[in-house]
Amino acid sequence: MLISEDDLIEHCLSSQTIAAGGMLTVKSDQVRLPNGNSSVREYVTHPGAVLVVPILPNGHIVLEKQFRYPLRQVFIELPAGKIDPDEDVLVTGQRELLEETGYTASHWVKLGLQHPCIGYSNEVIHIYLAHGLVAGTHQRDEDESLLVFQDSLNNCLTQIQSGKITDGKTIIALFLAEKYLALNPELQTQLQCDG
């Protein structure tokens, strides 16, 4: 018997909000399974986010070190932030790059998107590569403390392998950027000339 994707869909019978915060909401839904039985699905709703891989004229990547409270440690990450209501995802990326690092970019390339927590959240992260960077003054929120620095893509990839970079969204974005740059050598040449 052949099974199609439609045969895998679960249908919501009822939905309850367990908790709601400023950004996240925890839901508990009663669902009808494909086999006719019912079950409960608990999950977190998230407004979505945009992550930026900013590439400087010298080919280096702009990165951040930031303390992440749930794990009580400092992580190496790429600039990223949540999408505001009714905000275009590219505008989010441009806003977050400026707010967190002070950089603006003249060229933006959509590398893809990822769903980081498909078992318990509807979050989607849109990933952009930005180049043609111009330095400026950051516009961080009062509750943001970041250390902005730069490193080569090769060093970033080595730090992934060594376990120094462990943030999932950053790892995926760096691999997407590596693949994009390998398929677009003219950009690497342009960056070397600009640097």
What can you tell me about this protein's structure?
The protein has 195 residues and is α+β, with helices and mostly antiparallel strands. The protein has two domains: 5-45, no CATH class; 49-194, Nucleoside Triphosphate Pyrophosphohydrolase. The protein has four helices and ten strands. It has helices at 89-101, 153-162, 168-183, 185-194, and strands at 11-20, 25-32, 38-45, 49-54, 61-68, 73-77, 80-82, 104-114, 125-134, 146-151. The chain has a four-stranded mixed sheet with strand order 7-4-9-8, with helices on both faces. The chain has a three-stranded antiparallel sheet with strand order 1-2-3, with no helix packed on it. Strands 6-5-10 form a three-stranded antiparallel sheet. Strand 5 and strand 6 form a beta hairpin. The radius of gyration is 20 Å and the shape is globular.
CATH class assignment of the largest domain? Alpha Beta
Number of domains: 2
**Second rung of CATH, namely the architecture of the largest domain:** Alpha-Beta Complex
Outline type: globular
Largest sheet: 4 strands, mixed
Strands, total number:
10
- Strand order within the widest sheet? 7-4-9-8
Q: Please report the number of helical segments.
A: 4
In summary, what is this structure?
With 195 residues, this protein is an alpha+beta fold. 25% of the residues lie in helices and 38% in strands.
What is the strand and helix layout of this fold?
Blueprint: E1 11-20, E2 25-32, E3 38-45, E4 49-54, E5 61-68, E6 73-77, E7 80-82, H1 89-101, E8 104-114, E9 125-134, E10 146-151, H2 153-162, H3 168-183, H4 185-194
Helix pairs in contact: 2-3
